[in-house]
Design brief:
Layout (H helix, E strand, L loop, with lengths): L3 E4 L1 H5 L8 H12 L3 E5 L4 H11 L8 E4 L4 E4 L5 E4 L4 H13 L3 E6 L2 E4 L4 H10 L2 E4 L3 H4 L7 E4 L2 H14 L5 E6 L2 E5 L5 H12 L6 E5 L5 H6 L2 E4 L5 H4 L4 E2 L17 H5 L2 E2 L2
Parallel strand pairs: 1-2, 1-12, 2-3, 7-8, 12-13, 13-14
Antiparallel strand pairs: 3-4, 4-5, 6-7, 6-9, 9-11, 10-11, 14-15
Length: about 280
């Protein structure tokens, strides 16, 4: 049966240390063995998403795919072919970088496998460690933006970002889409980009009907993905706003309770999914 499962990474697939728990690995390996397209779908850069996907499926025995940068980039896992890319317009990216400097917010710009910040601090080091990327420090972040980057990321304590979120949503005027990926990460992408649009694009390319698409997530940047899937699954630790976009939720943190194997006679019975209220 032709099916696709899109999974968020942080606070969904991964444990607090950023590793794939064995119970989740086994559930995904079984789904993959049955021919299901298992697609990691993250706000993380393609370097980090691809590294985790290759760890999960080290054998290049068939095509596999990854969705990165909150849907701004869809790639084939093994040959690196770019299937879809839509960057944030550079003028908008420069404006956001300048805004971050004016308000003393950490910001990141992405180019290739590197990310750039205006300060070499603990946040830069933590992000580099989590993603495996190289962080580079520049004096003027806005000045070096010379392309349409996949995203701009702000990082600061949540209580600071909350006020700026409202302001920047108002200032967008259709020039960017903004969402929290974590309480301390505020992310900006092209206004027509989100995880849901990327899921629909890839499912159509692979010929997977909507009713055979599944999405699993926890955070605000997962809401469109859960709504776009035939079955949107919120994990037990999901934010209430995300649960509202889902059709099912897990009974526990382990994805063995969530990963649907379409060959099973009943997804709900096999994976103990409960419909949302």
């Amino acid at each position: 049966m032709n099916a696709l499962i899109a999974l968020d990474l942080d606070d969904t697939l991964l444990d607090p240390e950023g590793r794939i728990p064995e119970v989740n690995r086994e559930a995904l390996t079984e789904a993959d063995r049955r021919g299901v397209h298992v697609v990691l779908c993250s706000g993380r850069p393609v370097f980090s998403t691809g590294r985790l996907a290759r760890d999960l499926f080290p054998n290049a025995d068939r095509d596999r795919y990854a969705i990165s940068y909150n849907g701004a980039l869809v790639t084939a896992l093994y040959d690196g072919e770019v299937l879809f890319r839509r960057g944030l317009p550079r003028d908008a990216a420069r404006e956001l970088a300048a805004y971050s400097a004016e308000h003393d917010l950490g910001a990141q710009y992405y180019r290739g496998d590197d990310f750039f910040t205006a300060a070499a601090d603990d946040r830069q080091a933590s992000y580099a460690a989590a993603t495996g990327m190289v962080g580079r420090t520049v004096s003027d972040l806005a000045a070096i933006i010379d392309d349409d980057p996949p995203k701009i990321l702000f990082h600061a304590p949540h209580e600071r970002l909350e006020g700026h979120f409202a302001v920047l949503k108002e200032k967008a005027h259709g020039r960017w889409y903004v969402a929290f990926s974590k309480p301390h990460y505020l992310e900006f992408v092209h206004p027509e980009v989100n995880k849901g649009t990327a899921l629909r694009f890839l499912a159509e390319r692979l010929g997977v009907p909507k009713e055979n698409t599944y999405a699993v997530g926890d955070s605000l940047n997962d809401a469109e993905m859960l709504a776009a899937a035939g079955t949107g699954i919120a994990v037990a630790n999901a934010r209430p706003e995300v649960t509202a976009s889902a059709t099912s939720f897990t009974s526990g943190r382990a994805l063995a309770t969530a990963i649907p194997v379409p060959a099973a006679a009943s997804i709900s019975a096999s994976f103990r999914l409960s419909p949302t209220a």
